[in-house]
Each structure stands twice: as structure tokens, then as C-alpha cells.
Amino acid sequence: MKMKLLKPSWVSHNGKPIFSVDIHPDGTKFATGGQGEDSGKVMIWNMAPVLREEDEKNENIPKMLCQMDNHLACVNCVRWSNNGLYLASGGDDKLVMVWKRAAFIGPSTVFGSSSKLANVEQWRCVNILRNHTGDVMDVAWSPHDVWLASCSVDNTIVIWNARKFPEMVTCLRGHTGLVKGLTWDPVGKYIASQADDHSLRVWRTMDWQMEANITKPFSEVH
């Protein structure tokens, strides 16, 4: 199988670092998260100009769909919900933001930029989730979007009720180092977390207790 690598030069945060990318479940768009001018930046891009050269050259086909500068500091992760209705982002401002597409009122230019950077789609922050006391490193939606998990430099994993934002279900404690990443099993019975304490922990969603603490493979990791 041959793999094709595409690196569109126009996907940029004005030269600032991009730390996360996620493709929408329907494949028509993708989101990036990273550094903004003096804040964090989340951007949503059209996939068509990436996939087809003729679409890339067609000036009538927009490349950027929306730019959001609500995060107060760098954005570390962006993740689409499984149903594609929401986008979650987490940043160095200790916040998780949940975005939803709003009814289109008309093109709105991005504040402080030339009119060429008009938002084609309107994505609004519908919830701000506040509980972490440190930078948010990763977010992950459970299967069927029942829960949203976030992990942080504060060594914790917070489980949010994705059907009743901003309700918090629980806070998973036990890691002794910053938690870097999260993943759910395909059924939603377990969530796994990896941390700077050289461990990977598996938690049960039935009672939110720890099922396993795996350290041996990571003991030599620096």
C-alpha cells in the first residue's frame, strides 16, 4: 500500500506552532489547535483543497472555514465528537472549550485581519469547562459521546457529562506526574491514561476505579 503525504502550505497559524490536528468524522473538514498571536488559536479548514488540486487552485472554494481565538493561552489539543456536532479544545489556560456550529448569519471577518480571512462557518463556544488547575494536555470523547475526558499537568483526569455540560462526573486521581494522553476503548467500558510518572493506567467507567496500572514497559523511559 502506497501512502501519500500531503502538506498544504496554506494550513498555518500565521507561522506560530500547531500542536494538534483532528479530521472531522465526515472527512469534509479538519481542525487545528496551537499558538495564536497573544492567545490560543483553533482553526477549522476545508478538506477539499487538500484532496484535490483543482479545488486548491479555485479561489471560490474556501480553505479556512473558521478561526476562533477564545482560548487565553496556547491550545494543546482539538478533538471532534464522534457524531461530528461538537469540537472540544484544551489549552494552557486550564480550560476545555466545547464548540458547536451556529446558524450562518453572513460572513464575519476575523477581528483585526484583512477581509480575505472571513469566517465561512460560524463555530461558537457553547461551554467552558473549568476544573483543572494546570495546562490541559489532551481531551477525548467516549464512544457515543456520553462523556468527555480531559487530562492535565495537574496530574488528574476529569470526566465530564457530555450530555449535560458543564456537569462533572468524576475526577480520576492517582497519577504522580502530568497526564499526557487519553484513549477510550471502543465500547466505552474503559479509559486509559498515560503520564509522566512512567505509567499507563486503565480505569473502569462502571465505578471509575482503577483496573490496571502498567509500569514495567515504561520503566526505562526518560
UniProtKB/TrEMBL annotation:
<dbReference type="InterPro" id="IPR020472">
    <property type="entry name" value="WD40_PAC1"/>
</dbReference>
<keyword id="KW-0853">WD repeat</keyword>
<protein>
    <recommendedName>
        <fullName>CAF1B/HIR1 beta-propeller domain-containing protein</fullName>
    </recommendedName>
</protein>
<keyword id="KW-0156">Chromatin regulator</keyword>
<dbReference type="GO" id="GO:0006338">
    <property type="term" value="P:chromatin remodeling"/>
</dbReference>
<comment type="similarity">
    <text>Belongs to the WD repeat HIR1 family.</text>
</comment>
<dbReference type="GO" id="GO:0031491">
    <property type="term" value="F:nucleosome binding"/>
</dbReference>
<feature type="domain" description="CAF1B/HIR1 beta-propeller">
    <location>
        <begin position="3"/>
        <end position="216"/>
    </location>
</feature>
<dbReference type="InterPro" id="IPR001680">
    <property type="entry name" value="WD40_rpt"/>
</dbReference>
<dbReference type="Pfam" id="PF24105">
    <property type="entry name" value="Beta-prop_CAF1B_HIR1"/>
</dbReference>
<feature type="repeat" description="WD">
    <location>
        <begin position="129"/>
        <end position="170"/>
    </location>
</feature>
<dbReference type="GO" id="GO:0005634">
    <property type="term" value="C:nucleus"/>
</dbReference>
<keyword id="KW-0677">Repeat</keyword>
<feature type="repeat" description="WD">
    <location>
        <begin position="68"/>
        <end position="100"/>
    </location>
</feature>
<dbReference type="InterPro" id="IPR036322">
    <property type="entry name" value="WD40_repeat_dom_sf"/>
</dbReference>
<dbReference type="GO" id="GO:0000417">
    <property type="term" value="C:HIR complex"/>
</dbReference>
<dbReference type="InterPro" id="IPR015943">
    <property type="entry name" value="WD40/YVTN_repeat-like_dom_sf"/>
</dbReference>
<dbReference type="GO" id="GO:0000785">
    <property type="term" value="C:chromatin"/>
</dbReference>
<dbReference type="InterPro" id="IPR031120">
    <property type="entry name" value="HIR1-like"/>
</dbReference>
<dbReference type="GO" id="GO:0006351">
    <property type="term" value="P:DNA-templated transcription"/>
</dbReference>
<feature type="repeat" description="WD">
    <location>
        <begin position="172"/>
        <end position="203"/>
    </location>
</feature>
<dbReference type="InterPro" id="IPR055410">
    <property type="entry name" value="Beta-prop_CAF1B_HIR1"/>
</dbReference>
<keyword id="KW-0539">Nucleus</keyword>
